Amino acid sequence: MNAIEVFCPGSVANISCGFDILGLCLDSIGDTMRVKKVSKKGITIKSISGYNLSLKTNENAAGVSALALLNQYKNIDYGFEIEIIKKIKPGSGIGSSAASASGSVFAINELLGKPFSKKELVKFALEGEYICSKSYHADNISPLIFGGITLVRDHKELDIVNLPTPSELYVTIIHPQIEIKTSDSRSIIDRNIHISKMIEQSANLGAFISSLYEENYELLKRSIKDVIIEPYRSELIPEFKNLKKIALKNNALGFGISGSGPSMFSLCKGIKNANTVIKNMEYQLDKMDINYKSHISKINKEGLKIL
Ligand code: HSE
């Protein structure tokens, strides 16, 4: 195989109760990436359509993670050329940099005959994620590489746990058309938290994970809460409080900030509830004259895939 086209999905990191450790892979939103072997050694980013991003390999998430991979696979006398059709807006909170960072290493690994494990791909992709967000967090990358919902127990040891995906779960995304840089939205978080908040958050995280194994939607509903990060970040997002009220009133199981925002997600049981939740949130945003994009997605159990 000399060339490959891959779907690089969006993702929802944190899922409210698991800051920097929980993430889920989306199905209906994602970039397309084409990678081919070329005689020129190294990594060349030939084109990026959709959004204005650097074509310089060492400034681009896809390029940096691909270089990290090649650094561990030196004995080849050819290189790779990457074309990205970007559909996930950078700074949207639905894993734009993770899609690029993990897409390139997934594609190159396939072209090389899969010498690297999923865990190793996460390690390479983390380097690409780092240049965009200035922090090593694997919560967006892991569900793309492992599929479904993942827990990053330790991003240094790359101890990543695949969690079950309840069959009736749908995700809604509302993306107000403003940009929030992950590095900025990380800088406003209070680093010192009270132990009572730690207890609340870890109880919810444990209950959330249990609810996935039990497919217990009522427990899931009680546990999608973020008492640590959301109070700070929600201030940056227009209509956050109203949309949360509307989503929960219309039977969403939970509502929160997707990754570092400004996108907001809700989890719903069944497509009917997801449609009602999204319609009511759209009505509110139209009323307030706020530009947004909206999506409904199943959870993508496969993750990155060859097209
Ligand atoms: N866990 C990261 C954060 C995800 O919330 O900053 C960034 O998309």
Short summary:
This protein has 307 residues and is of the alpha+beta class. The protein has 2 domains: 166 residues, Ribosomal Protein S5, domain 2 (2-Layer Sandwich), CATH 3.30.230; 130 residues, GHMP kinase, C-terminal domain (Alpha-Beta Plaits), CATH 3.30.70.
Written overview of the protein:
The protein has helices at 61-71, 96-111, 118-133, 141-146, 182-187, 195-214, 217-223, 230-233, 240-249, 271-287, and strands at residues 3-13, 22-38, 42-49, 79-85, 149-154, 159-163, 169-176, 254-257, 264-269, 292-298, 305-306. The protein is α+β, with helices and mostly antiparallel strands and 307 residues long. The chain folds into two domains: 3-163 and 302-306, Ribosomal Protein S5, domain 2 (2-Layer Sandwich), CATH 3.30.230; 169-298, Alpha-Beta Plaits, CATH 3.30.70. Helix 1 (61-71) packs across helix 3 (118-133) and helix 2 (96-111) packs antiparallel against helix 3. Strand 5 and strand 6 form a beta hairpin. It is built from ten helices and eleven strands. Strands 1, 2, 3, 4, 5, 6 and 11 form a seven-stranded mixed beta sheet that branches. Strands 8-9-7-10 form a four-stranded antiparallel beta sheet.
